[in-house]
Amino acid sequence: MTTFQDLGVSAPILKALESEGYTKPTPIQMQALPIVHRGKDLIGLAQTGTGKTAAFALPILDRLHKDRKFPGEKSCRTLVLAPTRELAAQIGDSFRAYGKFLGLSTAVVFGGASMFKQKQALYRGVDVLVATPGRLLDHVSQRSVRLDKVEILVLDEADHMLDMGFIHDLRKIATILPRARQTLFFSATMPPAIEELAAQFLDNPEKIAVTPVSSTAERVQQAVVHVDQSKKQDLLHAMLADKGIKRALVFARTKHGADRVAKKLESAGFDADAIHGNKSQGQRIRALDAFKKGQTRILVATEVAARGIDVDDITHVINFDLPNVPEQYVHRIGRTARAGTDGIAISFCAPDERAYLRDIEKLTKQAVPVLETDMSLRAPKPDEKVVRPKGPTGRSAHPARKRAPKKHHASEAHGKAHAKQGHGPNRSRDEGDRRDRKGNAVWSNSGVPPKYRKQRKPTKV
Ligand code: AMP
Question: Element (H or E) spanning 111, and its range?
């Protein structure tokens, strides 16, 4: 059996891993560590829950530890780019945990938090900087960080970065980075657009893959309930009355939807909270902490706010709304059954969401078993034609499909002036129902219909 020691992990890191309770490397760690140790570029096809953070963090920490040098003022030796605040914070925590006996420095920067404090953290230079692209560019433009000394670049959840429209930011960042660097690129899916992005960032990379997204988290027991939209809340209450559901993550498609569901749960006496991009960073952290500690039993979240959330022991994922991008379903249900445990994922499917269910089944190459309840509607037959929802104008009636994608929305990078116009930290760029200053819906990142996703051409970086 391969051990962390066999993979060349040095003693202080082994000690930290022991205190984390890691006894053996996961498959992605076994594959990635030797490649990263050799200094090669890497493409890792892996989703969260596979241990991919340690797969890149461990060899990076090893290298920084063995080749210690002053990073330089306002500089960093390793740059990790992540699409969301939650994921960035989590990666930062992982670097700190695995490197707790090394004395290396780590900083995390993302939008919605104090620039001033982040500048202070960056001032003396850091060994590892974890950043969301928009906020990193804010710091670059305000000269609080320079990227010309980056030795190792990690792009985490690259597919999600593209979904969120970060391509322009990534392109800009790529022009600032030194060419001589090691790049590690992780993505849960590898459609052609991502392959092209990877080709632009990487130099002769080695490829590794674990649990491709379309195979779905195999340990997750899935079910779908066909139910009228108006009955979903009652169905949710009926299900959650079962105390066997110890910790449930409920997905709603929009921020308002998440709030509505959580409020109704609370008024019915359930222990619930909501997490989405309209909440302040403090509220998000508190809600997540309470959920992690088991103080809140039910967390209602939007897709993006929940991406990368690493909470052990989520027994149930409930899709109050089905996602219209099938890959998101796989990510959602992957929130349960983490680190070797089992999990249950139940999806509520209203008649106008049946096309999304078909898309999901096509992607995962398996039919989701139907669960009959008192509130169930008749399940459609396998060969029954499903109608994609259309509004009166001929456009889709689905909230996330109302408009064609508009131009790239102003980002975190617009800083204070942007915040003054009512797009402060709470108006995060990472949700499906954002509006521009005139109140028009802008390109919904999490809700980009698949047809647009396919049409988008990868841009040269
Ligand atoms: P990730 O895929 O990086 O989000 O990691 C998923 C979860 O697996 C996290 O809770 C990690 O702490 C945990 N993990 C990562 N590597 C190992 C390991 N070798 N043994 C046990 N747990 C691990």
Answer: none
Ligand 1 centroid to Cα of residue 125, in Å, is 28
- Listed ranges 37-41, 164-168, 288-292; the one with the highest mean pLDDT: 37-41
> Number of helices and strands (H, E) in the chain?
17, 13
Task: Determine the angle formed by the axes of helices 255-267 and 232-240, rounding to 10 degrees.
Answer: 50
**Domain check: are 235 and 204 in the same one?**
no
The set of protein residues with a Cβ atom below 6 angstroms from ligand 1 is: 22, 25-26, 29, 48-54, 310, 338-339
Q: Is 401 within 8 Å of 324 (Cβ atoms)?
A: yes
Boundary (domain end) residue, out of 167, 190, 210: 210
Q: Report which of residues 428 and 257 the model is more confident about.
A: 257
Please state the pTM of the whole predicted model. Answer: 0.60
What pLDDT is attached to residue 46?
86
Q: Which residue's C-alpha comes closest to atom 12 of ligand 1?
A: 51
Convert the pLDDT of each residue in 14-24 to its tens digit: 999 999 999 89
User: Do 177 and 145 contact (CB within 8 A), yes or no?
Assistant: no
Residue type at position 202:
L
CATH number assigned to the domain comprising residue 250: 3.40.50.300
CA of 411 to the centre of ligand 1 (A): 31
Does the pLDDT value for residue 9 go beyond 70?
yes
Answer whether residue 255 shows pLDDT above 70.
Answer: yes
The label of the residue with tokens 């797009």 reads: 423
- 3 Cα to the center of ligand 1, angstroms: 15
Sequence-distant (≥ 6) Cβ neighbours of residue 392 within 8 angstroms: none
Q: What is the arithmetic mean of pLDDT over 249-272?
A: 94
